[in-house]
Amino acid sequence: MNPTPYLVLATILFTLGGAGVLLRRNALIAFMSVELMLNAANLAFVTFARMHGNIDGQIVAFFVMVIAAAEVVVGLAIIVMIFRTRRSASVDDASLLKL
Amino acid sequence: MPMIIVLSAGVIGVLVEAFMPRRYRHVTQVALALVAFVAAFVQILRLAGETELIAVSGSVAIDGPALFLQGAIVVLAFVSVLFFAERKIEAGGNAFAPSASSLPGSEEERILVRDRVLQTEVYPLTMFSVGGMMLFPAANDLLVMFIALEVLSLPLYLLCGMARRRRLLSQEAALKYFLLGAFASAFFLFGAAFVYGYAGSVRLSEIDAALTARVGQEGLLLAGVGLMAVGLLFKIGAVPFHAWTPDVYQGAPTQVTGFMAACTKLAAFGALLRLFYVALGGLRTDWQPMMWAVAIATMVVGIVVALTQTDVKRMLAYSSIAHAGFILTAFVAVDELALSSILFYLATYGIMTLGAFAVVTLVRDAGGEATHLSKWAGLGKRSPILAATFGLFLLAMAGIPLTSGFVGKLTVFNAAFQGGAMPLVIVGVLTSAVAAFFYVRVIVLMFFSEPAAEGPTVAVPSPWTTVGIAVGAAATIVLGILPGPLLDLAENAAVFIR
């Protein structure tokens, strides 16, 4: 198996996610982009597991899915709390803390 | 295992939350947390006497640095819980919102405040977070390291958003911390994937073996190391990944700020040391230049921006960034001396930071804590003991002789010097001198300027908080005059098991 295409795809997904966090102003979209980055890492782990012929990488991928789910719980709680207070989920509106 | 004790106490705390009548909850939770920390500390002492081992089929290393940092984290967390449990300075409650889900300014919140409902979820969250912090420096493979990172971070994000006063600021701090923290841990994970791709294993010792054998592709490895460094340097608040620190430290409830400033830094440095010394020690010529640059940037930016701050909490935040830089100067030396000096510095830094933030909680006006520096003018004339204690912590942070901060700085600079990082030591000493200026400026402000007409009052805390601050101040002086025992302890602890 040639792992290169999978790794290229993982890197593209990771970059897209990173760009999403930095560029999008909506907290929910930024958060989704973080999840995309985690999934890119998962893809890389599974590809490398296949490449090395051991299952360490697949185990990691399972754990990452569980952790991502826990992160969604915490993240959505915080975003919903902010949205209820301010009626907006934009990252730009949250700017009370400035130098 | 101490970690199991703390984490199961967290689980029991959740059950208490569900089944205990509201009246008894607060006292039960506090007692549970304190008992668990004492039990965990006893366990750590017991383990420290035994031989080092790698437990849980190779995933958790119980060695000197891990046990030293775990012990320090448990002690600091114990004192933090005493501060969390403070109920006298806020009329009819503690520092946390009665219910984090109620809307700020709503009828629901008013009723909860009137009924003096106490929020007790903070204690189980703290226990989980401390469990993660204890696992972080002990993690012997990349998977466990990532899990520990998340277990310590996720409860902290929530704790940041729970302040009783200034809830909008607090919620905003939680959002920022969460988004940036999740972003950084994604970097760590992607880096871990690359290193796994290089070495074919996530175990630190096998990564080291693969490095020696030079089996894989260098490009993968270097990219992976860089990405993982981003994730860990974010947690310790090093420049250029420090942007979250001042905002989060300012917005979070001050007790939580003290807790995370002290304990998170200990845990994250422990993990950083283990990763770079145990797994990537063979690659040091490649990562040392990067760490040099980060250390210099961290010291300079931390100190220079701290000079311009007008808010006490933000000033302490930038000073904690600068401290991360001082610790990194020793980090690049990669030897036992560096390791023991970093362990000592972390312990003393944790004590003085926790104490300083606890003092900040006591200076209050009608709107809650008076954190603007102008309001601290003349505080020394109104309550000399409190101001003197804060002054002591500031002097220790500045590294004035006879305080623990001086010994800490001396040991890390000495380690960096022995390790051949002379330019770093020069930058460190220069920035320390500049730092002394702004710490002393605050002391001058407190003691030698006229009190403001409508200045803040100093709340009278419960005995627990008083004891906590007094112990912190005493430890700062004692470790400054007699650092020997703790230095010896750090020296004996400073060997990683492989």
Automatic annotation (TrEMBL), chain A:
It catalyses: a quinone + NADH + 5 H(+)(in) = a quinol + NAD(+) + 4 H(+)(out). It is found in: Cell membrane; Membrane. Keywords: Cell membrane, Membrane, NAD, Oxidoreductase, Quinone, Translocase, Transmembrane, Transmembrane helix, Transport. Its EC number is 7.1.1.-. One of its GO terms (cellular component) is plasma membrane. The chain crosses the membrane at residues 6-24, 36-53, 59-83. It comes from the Bacteria. It is an enzyme of class 7 (translocase). One of its GO terms (biological process) is ATP synthesis coupled electron transport. One of its GO terms (molecular function) is quinone binding. Its main location: membrane. NDH-1 shuttles electrons from NADH, via FMN and iron-sulfur (Fe-S) centers, to quinones in the respiratory chain. The immediate electron acceptor for the enzyme in this species is believed to be a menaquinone. Couples the redox reaction to proton translocation (for every two electrons transferred, four hydrogen ions are translocated across the cytoplasmic membrane), and thus conserves the redox energy in a proton gradient. This is NADH-quinone oxidoreductase subunit K. The lineage of its organism: Bacteria, Bacillati, Actinomycetota, Actinomycetes, Jiangellales.
Automatic annotation (TrEMBL), chain B:
The keyword NAD applies. GO terms for cellular component: endomembrane system; plasma membrane. One of its GO terms (biological process) is ATP synthesis coupled electron transport. The chain crosses the membrane at residues 28-48, 60-85, 142-163, 175-199, 219-244, 256-277, 289-308, 315-334, 340-363, 384-404, 424-448, 460-482. Pfam families: Proton_antipo_M. InterPro entries: NADH-Q_OxRdtase_suN/2, ND/Mrp_TM. It comes from the Bacteria. It catalyses: a quinone + NADH + 5 H(+)(in) = a quinol + NAD(+) + 4 H(+)(out). Signal peptide: none annotated. It is found in: Cell membrane; Endomembrane system; Membrane. Its EC number is 7.1.1.-. GO terms for molecular function: NADH dehydrogenase (quinone) (non-electrogenic) activity; NADH dehydrogenase (ubiquinone) activity; quinone binding. Keywords: Cell membrane, Membrane, NAD, Oxidoreductase, Quinone, Translocase, Transmembrane, Transmembrane helix, Transport. Residues 139-433 form the NADH:quinone oxidoreductase/Mrp antiporter transmembrane domain. Its main location: membrane. NDH-1 shuttles electrons from NADH, via FMN and iron-sulfur (Fe-S) centers, to quinones in the respiratory chain. The immediate electron acceptor for the enzyme in this species is believed to be a menaquinone. Couples the redox reaction to proton translocation (for every two electrons transferred, four hydrogen ions are translocated across the cytoplasmic membrane), and thus conserves the redox energy in a proton gradient. NCBIfam families: NDH_I_N, PRK05777.1-4. Belongs to the complex I subunit 2 family. NDH-1 is composed of 14 different subunits. Subunits NuoA, H, J, K, L, M, N constitute the membrane sector of the complex. HAMAP family: NDH1_NuoN_1 (MF_00445). This is NADH-quinone oxidoreductase subunit N. It comes from Phytoactinopolyspora halotolerans.
